[in-house]
Design a protein that fits this description.
Layout: E1 6-17, E2 20-31, E3 35-39, H1 46-54, E4 61-66, E5 69-71, H2 76-81, E6 84-87, H3 99-103, E7 110-111, E8 114-115, H4 117-130, H5 146-159, E9 164-168, H6 176-191, E10 195-199, H7 204-209, E11 212-217, E12 220-226, H8 231-239, E13 257-266, E14 270-278, E15 282-287, H9 293-300, E16 308-313, E17 316-317, H10 323-328, E18 331-334, H11 338-342, H12 349-353, H13 355-364, H14 369-383, H15 399-411, E19 417-421, H16 429-444, E20 448-452, H17 456-462, E21 465-470, E22 473-479, H18 485-492, H19 496-506
Parallel strand pairs: 3-10, 3-11, 6-9, 9-10, 15-20, 15-21, 18-19, 19-20
Antiparallel strand pairs: 1-2, 1-4, 4-5, 7-8, 11-12, 13-14, 13-16, 16-17, 21-22
This protein binds adenosine-5'-triphosphate and magnesium ion (MG).
């Protein structure tokens, strides 16, 4: 390939933060019309690297060349002028503005000095169509779910007519259907000659979409390989060793029912949901987005109310809509939205890890600070949280390491019933195995685990039983041995409402 095709080159980039060498000599190049995947463990330096190109950070050392010329990207405007658009891992939209306002933020079309709303909204409509998302340009961003936010970000990047499009884990929050749509868009952009930098922890996406892969380990580029490279080789390059068993589930003896949910109903959201999770069990909940899985577990945890039904922990009925009561009874929830609900970003790793235990300890009137510290250090070590120290602010951890802290705080809390909602989103393949091993330890010690995941191989690989939800109801239950992707999908797209109505009707209700 000739030099003419080279859009961008990075040479010997170094970047340090207090106590951390984030990048320690990275080389990278991007050609016209290619998808170049950046691969590396949580905290390897991927997001930091792309922030050098968007102008968010400045390198301590090294050079960035665009079209063969050295450039200094000092801020978002410089990046925009150079044709570089970035979709960040943490979204960058303004919640109180509309979709159209966000897309054209700072460059709204004007007429007679006024913002030309009509044109702006019509232009936004075209872009939204192009990314295939069904959302009104007039909707407030605050009201959108996470997948739609992502699509709006992409529409915004398209509106910039970028020559370089950087996407930091765009698929982490998308459903497989949405991922397919995204791939169609990205392939079209590649066709048009755009160079795409693509970050993902889903290895199967690499062969499906990528052309080349640059692997980063501990802030250094350790190799560049074609996207057709076998997955286990990619893993070896990335983590420095191979992974024997991706789903190391060990099923212990099953004990008594710890969590019992009976006829739980929230009108219009979920209906007549009943199930049990026993001590030692991992029960997975599969289903399509919108099936009501998150809504059910939030109600079980007391975060949301319900209209009918019961939640019992070890046989004792819980007061509804009361998180404190649920926690006191031993329920923990690792939420889907880690930034919004799981973490206090401006506190340290240690403080965040102690959030749940501290509360219990303070209530009991005894705070064992030394014990807290040791426990925090142990769990951070087990999860391999990459940090400068326990005193680092959670805000400055990498995305995957933040997720590990959310999980860690509940693992420390001595929960009887741990509910995990999309626990390994954004987690690298090596760290996933560590989390699975911790789930094994928990259940071996007699805890019950309820796990929602949209990653079907993960649900199938780690659950002893799988509940499948569709349209707010439990559409069916599968034992681990019978739970195949096909069986789960058949239930997930079924229509349990109709079936129920028929049987109810035939019973004369
Ligand atoms: N503003 C900052 N202050 C201090 N440390 C930082 C800052 N930004 C990043 N780091 C550190 O730099 C390292 C690299 O982080 P980065 O976010 O680039 O990782 P990543 O490869 O994107 O990981 P992930 O897959 O988890 O998103 C981490 O150790 C992180 O804690
Ligand atoms: Mg990152």
């Amino acid at each position: 390939m000739s030099n003419r095709d080279e859009l961008l080159r990075i040479e010997g980039i170094r970047k340090t933060f207090p106590g951390v060498v984030a990048l320690d000599g990275v080389d990278f190049d991007l050609r016209r019309g290619e998808v170049h995947v950046l691969l590396g463990e949580n905290g390897a330096g991927k997001s930091t690297l792309i922030k050098m190109l968007s102008g968010a950070y400045h390198p301590d050392e090294g050079r960035v060349l665009v079209d063969g010329e050295e450039v200094h990207i000092r801020g978002a405007q410089d990046a925009e002028r150079l044709g570089i658009a970035t979709i960040y891992q943490e979204f960058n939209l303004v919640p109180d503005l509309t979709v159209a306002e966000n897309i054209f933020l700072g460059r709204q079309p004007r007429r007679f000095g006024m913002i030309d709303r009509k044109t702006m909204e019509a232009d936004a409509e075209v872009l939204l169509k192009r990314v295939g998302v069904n959302v009104s340009p007039r909707a407030r961003v605050r009201e959108l779910g996470i997948a739609r936010l992502q699509m709006v970000e992409i529409a915004k990047a398209l509106s910039l007519n970028a020559r370089v499009l950087i996407m930091d884990e765009p698929t982490a929050v998308l459903t497989s259907e949405e991922v397919e749509k995204l791939f169609v868009i990205v392939r079209q952009l590649r066709e048009d000659g755009v160079g795409v930098v693509f970050i993902t922890h889903h290895l199967e996406e690499i062969a499906a979409l990528g052309d080349r892969v640059t692997v980063i380990r501990d802030g250094k580029s350790v190799g560049q390989v074609p996207a057709t490279t076998a997955e286990d080789e990619l893993v070896r390059l990335m983590v420095g060793r191979s992974i024997e068993q991706q789903y190391p589930r060990e099923v212990p003896e099953k004990g008594a029912a710890l969590l019992t949910v009976e006829g739980l109903t929230r009108d219009g959201v979920f209906h007549d949901v009943s199930f049990e999770v026993h001590a030692g069990e991992v029960v997975g909940i599969a289903g399509l987005v919108g099936a009501g899985r998150t809504e059910v577990v939030r109600a079980v945890f007391g975060a949301d109310p319900y209209d009918k039904g019961d939640v019992k922990v070890a046989g004792a009925r819980l007061k509804g809509h009361d998180v404190n009561a649920a926690m006191a009874a031993g329920i923990g929830l690792v939420p889907e939205d880690r930034k919004g609900q799981g973490l206090v970003l401006d506190q340290t790793v240690e403080e965040n890890l102690g959030l749940v235990t501290m509360r219990a300890a303070t209530r009991a009137g005894l705070v064992d600070l030394k014990g807290q510290h040791e426990a925090a250090a142990r769990i951070a070590g087990q999860l391999g949280v990459r940090m400068a120290g326990l005193g680092q602010h959670v805000r400055t951890l990498s995305g995957g390491n933040q997720q590990k802290v959310v999980i860690g705080k509940w693992l420390l809390a001595d929960t009887k019933v741990l509910i995990l909602d999309e626990p390994t989103r954004g987690i690298d393949v090596g760290a996933k195995v560590e989390i699975y091993q911790l789930i094994n330890e928990l259940t071996a010690a007699g805890a019950a685990v309820l796990m929602i995941s949209s990653d079907l191989p993960e649900v199938l690989g780690m659950s002893d039983r799988v509940l499948v939800m569709a349209q707010g109801r439990i559409a069916g239950e599968l034992a681990a041995a019978d739970a195949t992707q096909d069986a789960v999908m058949a239930l997930a797209v079924s229509n349990p409402t109709n079936e129920k109505t028929e049987t109810e009707a035939s019973r004369g209700h």
